[in-house]
Amino acid sequence: MTNSRNSQGFRLALRLALRELRGGLSGFYIFLGCIAIGAAAISGVNSVSGSIAGGITEQGRAILGGDVAVSLVQQEPPAEALALLSANGKVSRSTSLRAMARRSDGGDQILAEVKAADDAYPLFGELRANVADGADGVVDWADFGDDSVLVDPLLLERLQLKIGEQIALGDASFTIAGTIANEPDRISEGMIFGPRILMKPAALKNAGLIRPGSLFTDSRAIRLNDGSAAGLGAFLEKMQAQAPSVGWRVRSRDNAAPSLSRNIERFSQFLTLVGLTALIVGGVGVANSVHAFLDRKRPVIATLKSVGASGDLIFMVYLIQIMLLAMVGIAAGLALGALMPLVAKWALAGLLPVSSASALQPGALGLGAIYGLLTAFVFATWPLAVARETQAASLFRSSGFVARRLPRAGYLLMISCGVGAVAALAILSASNKFIAIVFLLSVAAAFVLLRVVAWGLQWLARMAPRVSNTQLRLALGNIHRPGSVTPSVTLSLGLGLSLIVALTMIDTSLRQQVSGNLPQRAPDFFFLDVQNSEIDRFRSKVEELAPGSTLNAVPMMRGRIIKLRGINAEDYPVEEGGAWVLRGDRGITFSESLPENATLASGEWWPKDYSGPPLVSFSAEEAGELGLTVGDEIIVSVLGRPVTAKIANLRGVEWESLAINFVMVFSPNSFAGAPFGYLATLTTSGKEKAGTSGTTADDSAIMKAITSDFPAAVTVRVRDVLETVNTLVRQLGAAIRAASAVALISSVLVLAGALAAGNQARSRDAVILKTLGARRSSLLAAFVSEYALLGAATALFALFAGGLAAWFVVTRIMDFRLAIDPMAPVLVLLAALAVTIGVGLIATWRILGQKAAPHLREL
Amino acid sequence: MITDTVVELSKVHLTLGSGASLVHVLDGVDLNVQRGETLAVLGPSGSGKSTLLMVVAGLERADKGEVSVAGSRLGSMNEDDLASFRGRQVGIVFQSFHLIPNMTALENVAVPLELAGDRDAFDKARAELEAVGLGARASHFPGQLSGGEQQRVAIARALAPQPSILVADEPTGNLDGETGKRIADLIFAQSGERGTTLLLVTHDTALASRCSRTVRMRSGRIEPSQTAAAGFVGGRAAQ
């Protein structure tokens, strides 16, 4: 009975709403813009990331180089494991490692990523190369000889070489046969630090780069005889069963680039939160538009009430209209969002695989739509609930409209549920829930604070001593009078600016850390793969090249945790923060004593001549994230051998120093007899004394001499690495700023809407003042003063709130020092003034030229 | 005994505004109106006559006193009960017509019937429009109608649910003399045919004289002489 009455009520409300909508979209452009921008940002970001994920899946075989790929570090798989691979399909082998590539004349050298692939390479996808300074084309790797290499064009540029010339690697020289245009399995290999050199296995052997303890990765890609999903599943089961004993990392075409997929997912989740901010900022515009719309509709509402409509029916009639209009905005936003993968495909061509087939991402569009609908609902409900109380009696009195009041409890509950749904969606869809929660709390706090700022500003304007300047007095009056635009302007612009300030300060701090603090504290060079037998000669050479400098050298091997506290690493429950320790191989070392740059947090260091069962010292922070403590047992696969060790102590490690640090330091007897190389750092004397690095020429001399005397050792100049990281941070920062600009666009839209809505009152004032003799310049000065005061106050708040948020993120989450760019406050202030005065004057310019007579007749 | 009194107001007080702008709009009003009677309320601006109409229509709530209309005590009803009461018992005609701009004439007339859940809302609305002479203009929007036509639609809308009482606030105030006269004729004819009680607020004494009874308001009160006269006239059906 009640249901049928409800459905009748809904049908009637829908009928009345559709009749009312005959008025068209006029007056709703800001509303539609706000909703469309937010929905477009969220659906676009998620569509692009979904299309990249789709691209990775579609091209999984080519990206991985096979149906399945297995890899081992510092060793080759045992014969029976290889037999299992070849029994199930065609196998291609490749070995990758870092090495110094040199000009044959010894003129220059560069860190290169070497990959030695057999003739079967690539099993899937196409290797494209430019072999004769012409257009690139598909090449057959089997056609190339053992003395030829293909290189990244960047390498030729850096070493000033040409196709056909010689390049030296390790103990041998090779002919550069061409440049690589497309290496099909490039993105599955994660971040690489130098240009690629593709060579034959025999060439690698000739170069003598692999020596005992060398850090190389042996990879085998398989094209399965039975490439069906079932065949793949069955084969993977066999592989996984062998994984613990062989110690290899198994990946399949379904998960070809896990770290890339993970990073894209994380980045898109972060950008979704930024998009959500745009939507929330736009929500203020939604509320303003709905408020203005309902103001216009009050006579209709009162009329409906006078002929028998209940308050609930009125609420439903207008909620339906608002939600239908929101759907129009959302549809426009989703159309834009759906186009973004196509733009991304064009912009990211050659960098990331963006699928055309899966460009239309229903999930992403659905997410944008749900956020859009929820935002429209949350921000429209308040003005709707207030308008519901409009009294029919207002039709008899010009000033009899309902006084502003709080909505009834039921509607407040409805709004709370909507807010809760937005928050729940944001938190549940984020992999890092902590960041999502902090983000939402910050936005909520900013919302409340901005409201308080608006009240404060209005209070100050009201309490300000009487000023003699008429324009300023008018401006102050406009700030505090009932129905002023102050709350809308501070709220919309304040949120957008605070977000920009926070993101810019975080970006500045991050880059300051990478380019400022780190280089001062970090060593100048890292040397990898210095042979055990060569370490003494290496020390003497370095002392000869850079007298008085500090060389730290520690043994280094690679190891992967396969079991912790009796649980397989892949099944071990771990928070996002500590997961990286279990992901793949980590550098490990052994030491008789506590490393100099570490502090003992708990437990005891082993005695100098310790010879009992293997012990390990674990980094305290990572142990905490993994839930490990002194006395726990871990099993680490090193050189294919499982080593069981008990945690003897936990160490405090300062990772940011870029000094030699390891998560795990073992007791020396743990790897007795195993081959290993040295990892060394060099801090030049000039830097130690003056805090500045040597010149590029000094660095080059050291690199040249070390590379020439120790061809298998890899020299990494910290300055180059930091430059690469800095570029990456800069690019990410630019992407984030571009996304946050969407929030600022919403702010400007809301601002324009709010100012336009306030035009009626402003027109009346202008006309009266003109009648009393005010010139247009006086009115202009009054408006500019008002907008400037609002802009300046909002900018100050944005600096404070954004700075606070940045301080929290930088010092509490990233553990850096907050860097402040002295120009930032000035720029924010100028931006705020430019936006408020610019948009304000555009919105109110028309008023200045209005003739008084027509208005006076209406007054 | 079945009473024939449709409107009973007893010692009704109403104050509007607050602080310095507080106004005692109704100051102890007593008024009885009989079924079928036509009553004109006259008085200067601000005397409280429109407010009196609002109180009768359940649009404004009295602070003190008893208000009973068509057998319902309005003081005990909430906003939604009052809305539904108006939908059934009270038709209202405004000076400014107050048609819903995005609805056609037919839809405007049908709205109160639809709100009351009447399945034949549109058939009845069409008949009402025919009755006011606007059958041919049913699909026109208010903006496409003249002032007089708009007021006819408003009268059709007010009478469509067959209310017990029709209240009209300056129904000819926004119309020229000739059109105003035709609208007045229509109101009297339609309410007379249906036996609907009519409460009319006006400044126009000629219009008021067409009513069976007239009361005059001043400063929130009904003037004594007129009230006394009302006592004698009360109960006589107006034609």
Given helix and strand content, the structural type of chain A is alpha+beta
Topology, number of strands of chain A: 22
Counted by DSSP, the helix tally of chain B is 8
Instruction: Classify the secondary structure makeup of chain B into a structural class.
Output: alpha/beta
Helix fraction of chain A?
Answer: 40-55%
Name the poorly predicted regions of chain B: 226-239
Number of helices of chain A: 24
Distance between the termini of chain A: 52 Å
What is the H/E order of chain B? EEEHEEHEHHHEHEHEEH
- What Rg of chain B is obtained from the alpha carbons, in whole angstroms? 17 Å
Structural shape of chain A:
elongated
Spatial order of the strands forming the largest sheet of chain A: 2-3-9-6-8-7
**Strand order, biggest sheet of chain B?**
6-7-8-3-9-10
Please sum up the structure shown.
With 859 residues, chain A is α+β, with helices and mostly antiparallel strands. Chain A is 55% helix and 17% strand.
